[in-house]
Design goal:
This protein has 430 residues and is an all-alpha fold. The protein is 78% helix and 0% strand. It has one domain: MFS general substrate transporter like domains (Growth Hormone, Chain: A). It starts with 10 loop residues before the first helix and ends in a 30-residue tail after the last helix.
Length: 430
C-alpha cells in the first residue's frame, strides 16, 4: 500500500495555507480593532457596537444561499482573490476616514457590511476549493494544519491586536488587518490548479439550486446535527463575546490589552487541541473524540462566567482558564467536523450544502449580536455573558443524540453517488 504523505507536500496547499495565515492574522487583529474603533475612537454605546457587529454578520444570513450557488457555478480561485482585494480596500478606506475624523457609526456599519459580504464569499469558495487541491486522504491532515494555524494566529493576533490598539490606536490596527487580506489575495493568485467551470443547469433557477443544498443538509443526520450545534454555539458565543468586550473595555484598569490576553488563552488551548486532534481521533475514533471535545469546549465558558460572578476579583484568571480549556476542546473538534462536512457530500453540491450550513450557523451570529446588545443593556455584561455561555453549553446536545457519536473512521461518512440527489430533482451542476 502506498504510504500516505502529509498535505504539506502539496504545493498549492502551501499557498492556500499561507493565504489563510495572512488573512487570519489580520482578521484576528481586526476582531479587537473594529470593536475598539467603535467603542473607543467613535465613543459608541453597547447598542451601537452591536449594530456594527451585526452589520458584519448579517450577510451570512442574507446572501449565503445565493453565494453558495455562485460557488458551485464558478471557479473558486478568482472568487477568493476578488473577495480578498475588496476586503483590503474597504479597511484601508476605513482607516483613512478615521484618521481624518470623517468616520461615523453609520459609515462604519456600511463598511463592515461590505466586509461581511466578501467574507461570506471567500469562506464558501475556500471550503469548496480545498478538496480540489488536496486529495481526500489528506483532508484531515490539511484541516488539522489549518486549524492549528488559526489557533496560533488567535494566540498571536489577539495579543498583537490589543497592543496595537492600545499603543498605536485602532485605525492603525485596522490597516494591519487590511494588509493581511491584500497579501492573502496575492498568495491565492499563485495557486495553479485546473478548475473546470460548471455550466448552469438548464431550466433551474438559483433559488432551486439553493434549495437543493438546504435539502441535502437537512436530509443528512450528521451534517444536520453539526449545523444545529454550530448554530446554537455561535448564537450564544456572540452574546458572550459582546458582553465580555463591554465588561472588560469599561474597566479603566483593564482595557484592550487585557481583553486580548484573555482571548489569547483560547488560542493557546485551541492550538494544543488541534495538534492532538489526529492522535486522539486515531485512538478513540471520530465520534467519541468529537463528542468529548464538544463537551469540554462548550461547557468551560459557562463555568468561567459563574466563577467571575461569584468572585469578581478573579475575573481575569477565571476567564483566562475558561478560554484555555474551551480552546482545547474546540481545537480538537474543529478539524474533525470540517473534514466530515467536506467529505460527506459530492463536490458538485459542496458549495450549496456548505451555504446551507453557513446560513444557519453564521446567520445566528448577526442575531446574537443584536440580542447581545439588548441583554448587555438590560441584564448587564455579566448577566448577558451568563445567558450566552449557557446556550453554548447546550449546543453539544444535537451531536450527542445524532449518529455522529458512532463514527469511527471518516470514510464512513463518504456518500454513495446515488444518495446525493433524488431522481426527480433535475440535472446537477458539475
Amino acid at each position: 500500500m502506498k504510504k500516505v504523505t502529509s498535505a504539506w507536500s502539496i504545493r498549492p496547499f502551501r499557498y492556500v495555507w499561507g493565504a489563510g495565515a495572512l488573512s487570519g492574522l489580520g482578521a484576528e487583529i481586526g476582531e479587537l480593532a473594529l470593536p475598539s474603533l467603535a467603542l473607543i475612537t467613535l465613543g459608541a454605546s453597547a447598542a451601537q457596537a452591536s449594530w456594527v457587529r451585526a452589520a458584519m454578520l448579517a450577510p451570512f444570513l442574507l446572501v449565503t444561499l445565493w453565494f453558495g450557488v455562485i460557488v458551485d457555478r464558478r471557479a473558486r480561485r478568482p472568487l477568493m482573490i476578488g473577495a480578498d482585494l475588496v476586503r483590503g480596500a474597504v479597511l484601508v478606506l476605513v482607516c483613512l476616514l478615521a484618521l481624518s475624523d470623517r468616520l461615523t457609526i453609520p459609515l462604519l456599519i456600511v463598511a463592515t457590511a461590505v466586509l461581511g459580504t466578501m467574507t461570506v464569499l471567500y469562506q464558501l469558495a475556500d471550503f469548496a476549493f480545498l478538496p480540489r487541491i488536496v486529495p481526500e486522504r489528506h483532508l484531515v491532515d490539511a484541516n488539522a494544519r489549518i486549524t492549528a494555524t488559526q489557533s496560533a494566529l488567535q494566540l498571536a493576533g489577539a495579543g498583537v491586536g490589543g497592543v496595537l490598539v492600545q499603543a498605536l490606536t485602532a485605525p492603525i490596527a485596522v490597516v494591519v488587518n487590511a494588509a493581511g487580506y491584500l497579501l492573502s489575495g496575492l498568495f491565492i493568485s499563485r495557486v495553479r490548479v485546473a478548475e473546470p467551470r460548471p455550466a448552469a443547469p438548464s431550466g433551474r433557477s438559483a433559488l432551486a439550486e439553493a434549495k437543493t443544498g438546504v435539502r441535502l443538509l437537512l436530509r443528512h443526520p450528521i451534517l444536520r446535527a453539526l449545523a444545529a450545534e454550530a448554530t446554537l454555539w455561535n448564537f450564544g458565543n456572540e452574546i458572550f463575546m459582546l458582553a465580555l468586550a463591554v465588561h472588560v473595555l469599561a474597566d479603566p484598569a483593564a482595557g484592550p490589552m487585557v481583553l486580548g490576553l484573555i482571548v489569547t488563552c483560547g488560542g493557546v488551548g485551541a492550538f494544543a487541541g488541534s495538534v492532538a486532534s489526529a492522535r486522539l481521533t486515531a485512538r478513540y475514533g471520530y465520534g467519541r473524540s468529537l463528542l468529548a471535545s464538544l463537551v469540554l469546549g462548550n461547557s468551560a465558558p459557562l463555568l468561567g462566567i459563574l466563577g467571575t460572578a461569584l468572585v469578581p476579583a478573579g475575573t481575569i484568571p477565571f476567564l483566562g482558564a475558561a478560554f484555555l480549556v474551551s480552546g482545547v476542546g474546540i481545537g480538537i473538534a474543529n478539524s474533525q467536523a470540517t473534514s466530515i462536512r467536506q467529505i460527506a457530500v459530492a463536490e458538485d453540491v459542496r458549495g450549496r450544502v456548505n451555504a446551507g450550513y453557513r446560513l444557519a450557523s453564521w446567520g445566528a451570529l448577526s442575531i446574537g449580536a443584536l440580542i447581545g446588545g439588548i441583554l448587555a443593556t438590560v441584564l448587564g455584561p455579566i448577566g448577558a455573558a451568563a445567558a450566552g455561555t449557557a446556550l453554548m453549553a447546550l449546543a453539544t446536545l444535537p451531536v450527542a443524540f445524532s449518529p455522529a457519536r458512532h463514527v469511527c473512521r471518516i470514510e464512513e461518512v463518504a456518500p454513495e453517488q446515488t444518495d446525493q440527489l433524488p431522481a426527480t430533482s433535475g440535472p446537477r451542476t458539475s
